[in-house]
Structure prediction request, 300 residues.
Amino acid sequence: MNGVLIIDKPAGLTSHDVVNRVRRIIGQRSVGHLGTLDPMATGVLPLVFGNLTRLAQFYTSSDKSYEGTIRFGFATDTYDAEGDPLGPHQPVTALLEQVREAAKRFHGTIDQTPPPFSAKKIHGVPAYKLARKKKEISLPAVQVEIHDFEITSYENERAEFCARVASGTYMRSVAHDLGSTLGCGAHLESLRRTRVAEFSIADAHTLEQVEVAWAAGKGDDICVHPRTLMPDMPSVTATDEIAAHIRSGRAVNLPEFSRAKQVKVFYGQADLIAIATRVAGTLFHPKIVLALEPAVPAAG
Prediction:
């Protein structure tokens, strides 16, 4: 079976834990995710399985949206609530408007240093492995893009926020650096991802809901419809002849898509069989073939 499934990840599980759980539920080894969430974080974790794991390459640069809480007064070694405090509690004197003014520095393209407890590699070793051994960590700053970062409320040394950021941005670092800017230290107390690319929290299902659906033979009902994937890429419904050419890796003419760089090729309404790339003019070559065997087209 091929599909895309959006999980509402619970706190306390790694993204890999979720992948392993879904593998057992659906009885399939070929399952992957489209962007890691820290164990503490909850929310949107898109999973791809079967041949659709090959679509992951189209989501490596996807924007992500979050909401969460920043706790002021002390920083931690992990930059979140799971870490150890880096010092005693500091007095927090900032007012809401001061916090919002400081937050304005975290907009647009900025230089950001990843957390020591991260998957960034130092001489081939993940930084978190060195950090766990109390090794000194020195990660270079990288440029990240923060499209929106809004402090929505502030009370009892805690700021609620919502954010939309480009891939590679660490909200833990944003919280840590905001605390440094205000001079009182801070860490990320909670984080919920509400969107990845076109997938929102409204599309998400709990692991328990997935288990119930699969046990009832209704797995298709909770998977994302293939027609909604990569909405910026046009779709074409292939004839039997075009589908046969696509499945065998041969180029095809698609006159109606002379301006498109890539198209999604469907056989019937829901069988995504390929992603084709324009070679020249109206000639498209199947860059990724997702269905080699003929399928019965869906009704309608």
Residues 99 and 231 are 37 Å apart (CA to CA). The longest strand covers residues 142-155. The chain has three domains: 3-61+198-224, 64-190, 228-289. The mean pLDDT is 91.
